[in-house]
Design a protein that fits this description.
By secondary structure, the protein is an alpha+beta fold. It contains 9 helices and 33 strands.
Amino acid sequence: MPPSDSDNSSRPSSEGLLRAALESIGSLLLTVLLLVVLVGVLLWGTTVEKYYGDTAAKFGIYGSWWFNGIGALFAINSAAALILRWPWKRQQTGFILPHLGLIVLLVGCYVSRHYGMEATVSVIEGQSSDLAYKGASQHVELDGQQYSTLTSTSDEGGQKAADPITVRFTSGPFNWADYQATTSDETATALPMLPWSLAHRDRGVLYDRDGIRLEVLDYLSNSEIVDVPSLAVQATPLGPKGSEQSEDATMLHFEVKPADGPHIAGHIYGLGSEQQLTGGTRLLFWMTGSPEETAAFRQSSPEGPLGKLGQVVLFAKGKAHHWQLDDWKPGDSRPLGDSGLTVELKNVDSKKGEVDFSIHRGGTSRPMELSAEFPQLMTQQDFEHQVFGTYWRGAGEKSAVEPAAEKKAEAKAQPPSKPEAKPDSEPMPPAPPRIDVLQGADRQLYLRTWRDGKAETSGPIAVATDAGRTVAFAGTPSEVVLRFGDFHPADRPGAEARALKFDSSHDMPHLRQARVRLTVDGDEEEFWIPCMPHDPIEARGLAVPTNRQQKIVAGKGRQIALRFEPDAFRLGLAVHLRKAWRKLDPGSRQPSFYASEIDLVPNGDTAKDAAAEPPQKYENLLVTLNAPLDFTDPASGRSLRMFQSSMLGPFPPEDFGIKLGDQVYVSGLTLNYDPGRGLTYIGCLLVVAGIFVAYFVRFLNPSRSGK
């Protein structure tokens, strides 16, 4: 059947539309526009890289989908221009080669970006390392292997522990709060004007399978781990001057640390801290989460003379009970008002300023140890019976009981064969003035002063305001002006993540932390987890508590351990740093030259085949700034290029736990795997050749210059 007229008429129309589309896509106008946009973006990226580092530039610009889209559109534009001129003629060589070279160049860049790799090996002088870290990339690892949690069926039909689950985590180079920060945020970073929302960040749910759900709620690219509660106090002694002198002001920092270990298990609210001012005045800081202990702190001032051994105030059921220790013998028991409790004195050590009690109710008994000098450390309150004690001790006070009478009472009360330990009656040295600061159960600060046998309390204290000026020991030679500033309260002593401003400096360790929510079989926990530093410089500069290196969340009959780690891999050749050199510019601390003399030594895990020839050992290799080293990694088969990227130091060898000379350097060696390098070289050569041909043909044929 012959074709109809409609079929013949549709073919030219379709070809015309296709050609029109190709002419639009491959137009010179679009090429010029893309070139202008690309040049502007590259200038923009260079500025961002200068002030915020290459990681920020890669994240916000070069690694974004829209930048890849510009490159893809550029390649399509060149391809369309070539298609429009098909079949190609010899005189079009000067046009074809640059466009073809541009396409090859862009393909090479794409291959390098998506399949290439850049990593860093940091080696201490005289040491070896085969561990390479992939820049700022990182992952979260869910592991149940050590706890018999995640299981999978083995080939023999039995059960075996499953491999850890690795979850990729792309976070970006900044603290997440910086993206929404205001000008009033002191720790925020003034981010460059970039479409950050277009850059990919892994937020929200990262993993949700088999009863395990992992969510990322917040992220800090630069942070520190601080003990909480913590407090900063500016103390200005007035003394005989009678006026506040700014040059005499001292900024003091206090913190409460968790009490670890069975010997201090009674300190459920941690161990406080102490600072001392010029002149001997002591400042103490501790915390409590008990409203009753907060009330005891405020209502347990001593009454009357303290005596030689001092006075104990026990607070129970909203009442304070005062007892002189001079007329109380070890082993004696006394009722604690109408509380139904009995208090037994065990021992008094006046030299150490400590007194031991037992609190009895029925068949239960709890020990209590009080310290007159270190209440922030030694106080073991009886939370079971809700009894809270304070030991007040003066200096040089006369005992309420004469020593002779005391000795007679002891001799009469104690059998000769088993003499009871008697209190030490030696006179006590003068106690310096003391200022106690307590974070109460309401997260407010309360202050108590102690001087010359007198205690005064006040609170709550205003913090970080003009009204926060507090005068202690007013009108005495010990007068001190206190200004309470940076205060971070907490319900329990522990550690928390605190954001720091972004710093692109490469010689400063950055502690990365993520706030995650991990749910295992319906049981969820929310916490901060730090990215573990393995680089020797980071490990030296970042102190991460051992108990924060991983978090274990229990589910139904299983436990899942979560770790946050940088991406790393092991080389088939260990890098041994023989010697590091560094030269500084005259009169400055800026290095002008640094180099590393290294050996590449097989690490023992390279050859998987026993019959295979062992990898070669390379010795006395020199890596400098301008002379990279090319070698093949036997573990992966990749062709790697090693650059000398940094040299840090000198450091004391003790910082790294080694003994080698007086000082050591740490050499930073960058490994680069670029599978698209050949394509980019070919593309560049084609572009240059095309430009040369175009101008060469025009020079030989001036008559064609207008065509």
